[in-house]
Amino acid sequence: MSPTPHLSRRGLLAAGAASAALPLLAPSVASARPVGEVRRAPYTFRNAEIVGGGFVTGIVFNQREPGLVYARTDIGGAYRLDTASRRWLPLTDWIGWDEYGHTGIISIATDQVDPDRVYLAAGTYTLPDWDPTMAAILRSTDRGRTWQTTPLPFRLGGNMPGRGIGERLVIDPNRNKILYLGVRGGHGLWRSTDHGKTFAKVTSFPNPGNFVIDPTDPDGYNGDNQGVLQVVFDKRTGRAGRATRTLYVTVADTDNILYRSTDAGATWERVPGQPTGFIPHHAVFDHVGGYLYLATSNTAGPYDGSKGDVWKLDTATDTWTRISPVPSTSDDNQYGYSGLTIDRQNPDTLMVSTQIQWWPDCILFRSTDGGASWTRAWDMDTNSERTLRYDIDISAAPWLTWNGSPSLPEIAPKLGWMMESVQIDPFDSGHFMYGTGATIYGTDNLTDWDSGGTVRISVRAQGLEETSIGCVISPPVGPAHLFSGVGDVGGFRHTDLNKATKMYDNPTFGATPALDYAELAPHTIVRVGNPTSGWTQHFGISTDSGDTWTPSRSEPSGVTGPGVDDQAVAISAEGRRIVWAPAGAPASWSDDHGATWTASEGLPAGVSVRSDRVNPAKFYAYGSGVFYLSTDGGKSFKATAATGLPTAGNVRFKAVPGQEGDIWLAGGTTKPTTPTPYGLWRSTDSGASFTRFEAVDEGDVVGFGKAAPGATYPAVYTSSKIDGVRGIFRSDDAGRTWIRINDDRHQYAWTGNTITGDPRIYGRVYFGTNGRGVMYGDPK
User: Are 586 and 592 in contact (CB under 8 A)?
Assistant: First the structure.
């Protein structure tokens, strides 16, 4: 997985967090009362399954009820595990367009006094340009079926550095009205005394933290203070209904990592004798022995960390013991420690993970004597031969090899990376799960480790879809109805929408922003992306409906990336000519499947390109409010006379299958610093002029599918705001009227990247999300 963070859409003004409770996973229902001219239609939405795909930053077991467990992701919301199906149920699909940042979950708290209560600390970025919405606490009294929102006066950073550090939001195990929240950015420690309805700063807490990854980047991704990290309770110092007296707080300050209160948070002291030099990633309290365990590292993670230690504090005597499997003083220690857990059934048993070790693999360590001695999930001899205490079944997500066959001592799939949440089930010593940068792994026979047996690890991410989707296409013929371009994990040919398949190969991409097929020869498909696994090519072509691929033999001079979004590459209607607008090089054309490239004339850098779906000689381009037309197969382009188009924002356009010169364009922005038209337009003269749809207040992406029965024009699908209502819409009459096909319980946050209908199934729509994978919907 690329160490590049998932990036949300940027720049839309937020409308603020809603406070009304919204039901979860209920079926869509047709409304009897139209809003404006917008009608509604009942749809069922599902994922085209990839299974995982992104960073699972936290797994949290309830400490009272067996089988109650939650997972959080950096951009894809939160989930609860359904024990009957062993699938994860999404809990945050109700989050809408204007609050899209609330799908970045920095912490989950599940209540051991009242297991029906669960809380999420939500907020994706600390950078206003990336996420204009302030953070919030989302609170539920029915295990995530419905939610209420508590706005916060700061941002949290669910997809920022440090997001894998232990849970920043916790509930007092004795008096569950009390919650604590550790906050980054110098905002300190906050507390609620009313089940999370309100929060106030704990003014007596002495240290807001000071660890900044890059002090020279104060307004950037690495420039904020990691802050107050984690609160852990010694629940022995309270009783039911009374606030726990003793609690510990970890802080991102290499000289002062741990504070303690013995009067329920009224006053605080620096714990004496504490280690210095690293920041704490996870803290776990043993309520039987009275020990506090800390895993520390020299960075915030999750992509780095080269030194660290594991510490054990005897809280009765304030005696510290370094119990690192490999101490930081050793030359063999080239990693920090992060994921940390103890076996609640046998508290002397604990496990810890390396924060990251890209080569040859991350390591899990296990101790059954309180950290006095350790064994490893794998050992390596002087000949670089690895001996494994485990095996891994990836049949649920076979792409986890990244199409790689590395040389030993590396193996595929890896045991993991970014393994910052490692959890033994508090009620079952054999049940264990851990998150990685791409999935959840788990086992039911963990204790076989101790007797020399093989621990059977398998993918446990079914139902959890955490990918950012760059593009989707649906060709009219072939074994696959859907092809997806996916961030971090390349993309997939979906011959079965209910099963993960092999990642695109030859070349393998870390991300695929653009795909296109030849409308009149749809077995021919092109894709562009960011190469990985030893590849250098950014372009691949298939002539057998995506079964096999061929990389380009050359590229336009200067290419640094695949290009602009899902409109970076286009193939002519009959499949002979390709136009590619890569980053770092001029838009160029090829008539030999990418063997050679020639710069197109008349186009500036950074444009988007599309092909006409009927006339092989026509290509279109767009940039900065100007529309361009080519009538010679992309060799040359000229600006058309079209005016009034958006000059900024998220602008996407498509040509209509079966209709020469018919183009729809959506885009614009409400950002006040960039005033520009925002809506949906149509041209029927190859872009010479465009007419705006007045009902569409904000248009963001458009696509086409099979026509309605009795109709000749394709069904049109869009993610837009129409007559004041934001949603996913379908029109069966070329945009004269619109039907909203999602509802407020199925909004999927930001859906402005890509959408298409299925040309073979009327009513079916596919669209991409920024964290919830590929969604597809069918009429009920």
Answer: no
